[in-house]
Specification:
single chain, alpha/beta, Rossmann fold, 2 domains, 6-stranded parallel β-sheet, 3-stranded parallel β-sheet, 10 helices, binds nicotinamide-adenine-dinucleotide
Length: 296
């Protein structure tokens, strides 16, 4: 089997070029650029890295980016005040609240307070509801990125059996929903597997498209994958490695080395789904911006 390693880097770069061009054309006409804001509470190193990446991505396509940083001790009331401020700032097209939040803050209260029209993470229940109904909305970044990757790679989804492993609210559950919709980039028959699934291997062996979001390093092995399947690896694991200049390497939920030879297409880790997740936030911000410019 000739395996194609899906080139997410090139696809992400193409999408960023398309966005940057649209922004440039608009600003040349005198319009303001899109504005993406982020709220970061506390000092969690991973959250700081994610927010820094979002800032860098925004600048790379010509967006205005602002980050509101607050100490770990910020109260829920104070945070809700900042959310309210951004909800009402006409110059902000969309914003995200970086999760996880400190334990004393109720995440649901904060997500519910975001204006759904500015919820570019797609986490507000109104946007989740619209996604389930197939209405235009902000799609959650990781599944949106995966769907875009499949589409732009030219992988047929219609009528295919897609098996999703993992049912998190941010990846597995929306992925299963989105790929089962009656849409040209979907129309899959979907099986959603989770920690209580019995005979997992029996199911994964039926997958034409296997999306793995389980959070267990190299969980999917070659004996679980059908010859010719498309495998999408969502997992991200940092493994200590003193021989690596960074002191670690990144790997996924799939045993890439042994699974790849059986696949028609497979996403690498790093350089796969993670890159597309970042691009999705830019695509959602463009959607919010276009809506605002139409209204203006
Ligand atoms: P999670 O950790 O919230 O949930 C894991 C899911 O796996 C659960 O729904 C659980 O039911 C299921 N599961 C656990 N054990 C199982 C088993 N033995 N058989 C079948 N299912 C089982 O998942 P998440 O937040 O979706 O993250 C999954 C992985 O993806 C993590 O490694 C995370 O770091 C990574 N991730 C990557 C990106 C990206 O942009 N690449 C984005 C989000 C998450």
């Amino acid at each position: 089997m000739k395996t194609v390693v899906i080139d997410a880097k090139t696809i992400a770069a193409q999408i960023k070029d398309e966005i940057a061009n649209e922004v440039r054309l608009n600003t040349e006409k005198g319009m303001r650029p899109p504005h993406l804001a982020a709220i970061l509470v506390g000092e969690d190193p991973a959250s700081k890295t994610y927010v820094a990446s979002k800032e860098k991505d925004s600048h790379s396509v010509g967006f205005t980016s602002s980050v509101y940083r607050y100490p770990e001790t910020m109260s829920e009331k104070e945070l809700l005040g900042v959310v309210d401020f951004l909800n009402n700032d006409p110059d902000v097209d969309g914003f995200i609240v970086q999760l996880p939040l400190p334990k004393h803050i109720n995440e649901n209260n904060v997500i519910n307070a975001i204006n759904p029209d500015k919820d570019v993470d797609g986490f507000h229940p109104v946007n989740v509801g619209k996604m389930v109904l197939g209405m235009p909305t902000f799609l959650p970044a990781t599944p949106y990125g995966i769907q875009t990757l499949l589409e732009r790679t030219g992988i047929e989804t219609s009528g295919k059996h897609c098996v999703v492993i993992g049912r998190s609210n941010i990846v597995g559950t929306p992925m299963a929903n989105m790929l089962s919709r009656n849409a040209s980039n979907a129309n899959c028959t979907v099986t959603l597997c989770h920690s209580r699934t019995q005979n997992l291997k029996e199911l994964t062996l039926q997958a034409d498209i296997l999306v793995v979001a389980i959070g267990k390093r190299h969980f999917v092995t070659e004996d679980m994958v059908k010859e010719g399947a498309v495998v999408v690896d969502v997992g991200i694991h940092r493994v200590d490695d003193p021989t690596n200049p960074k002191g670690y390497y990144i790997t996924g939920d799939v045993d890439f080395e042994h699974v790849a030879p059986k696949c028609s297409f497979i996403t690498p880790v790093p350089g796969g789904v993670g890159i597309m997740t970042r691009v999705s936030l830019l695509m959602n911000t463009m959607t919010a911006y276009r809506r605002n410019m139409e209204k203006a």
